[in-house]
Amino acid sequence: DAGVTQSPTHLIKTRGQQVTLRCSPKSGHDTVSWYQQALGQGPQFIFQYYEEEERQRGNFPDRFSGHQFPNYSSELNVNALLLGDSALYLCASSWGAGSTYEQYFGPGTRLTVT
Amino acid sequence: EDQVTQSPEALRLQEGESSSLNCSYTVSGLRGLFWYRQDPGKGPEFLFTLYSAGEEKEKERLKATLTKKESFLHITAPKPEDSATYLCAVRGGATNKLIFGTGTLLAVQP
């Protein structure tokens, strides 16, 4: 049973550029959440997608956007990159947008902005 | 405001030396408290879910407990392979987002 997968593993971008990160959820899951984790901190919620719509959003600017596809996979897009966007970006999948079930995390994408 | 505080920030144990990690939380209407283990540079690995005060879960050398204000992760006779950051998260109200603490970095020396 494949778990949550993310690509790419690492990415280096320059300030002002745009980046797209990808996530495939665990088999049987239909909900994808994205988190940003700075070094030494806990993950911070960015947004959640269910039925191809953004259902909830954390305190992140509009530069952060996303998409969910019919096969439940998801993308995270970040425009006009800032140095402060350097972090580990985590994707988590679960079943049911309003459920209390646990979320399973992927290995993350390490983004470095120079 | 929903909040999670973990203590201590870092903990160093000798192999076999049991201890506990604390997670204090304030949330409106707890809909689940979650423990994760995270190795350096990797995504969090799910360990336990607790839903109500008094609930306990066990897995190998780990045991998680929950009260109305905090949760404990007890580690019995730890081994070096238990070294990792342990994250606590809560889900509350009508949302499905997880609110994480900053974690406890555990180092178990042989």
Index terms:
heterodimer; A: 114 residues; mainly beta; seven-stranded mixed β-sheet; four-stranded antiparallel β-sheet; B: 110 residues; six-stranded mixed β-sheet; five-stranded antiparallel β-sheet; 0% helix; globular
Describe the structure.
The complex is a heterodimer of chains A (114) and B (110). In chain A, the strands form two sheets. In chain A, strands 2, 4, 5, 6, 9, 10 and 11 form a seven-stranded mixed sheet that branches. Chain A has a four-stranded antiparallel sheet with strand order 1-3-8-7, with no helix packed on it. Chain A is mostly beta strands. Chain A is built from no helices and eleven strands. Chain A has strands at 5-7, 10-13, 19-24, 31-37, 44-50, 53-57, 64-68, 74-78, 87-94, 104-105, 109-113. The model of chain A has no long low-confidence stretch (mean pLDDT 95). Chain B is mainly beta and 110 residues long. Helices cover 0% and strands 59% of the residues of chain B. Chain B has no helices and eleven strands. Chain B has strands at residues 3-7, 10-14, 19-26, 30-38, 45-50, 56-59, 62-66, 70-75, 84-92, 99-100, 104-109. In chain B, the strands form two sheets. In chain B, strands 2, 4, 5, 9, 10 and 11 form a six-stranded mixed sheet that branches. A five-stranded antiparallel sheet of chain B has the order 1-3-8-7-6, with no helix packed on it. Chain B starts with a strand and ends with a strand. The relative contact order of chain B is 0.34. The model of chain B has no long low-confidence stretch (mean pLDDT 95). Classes of the chains: A mainly beta (114), B mainly beta (110).
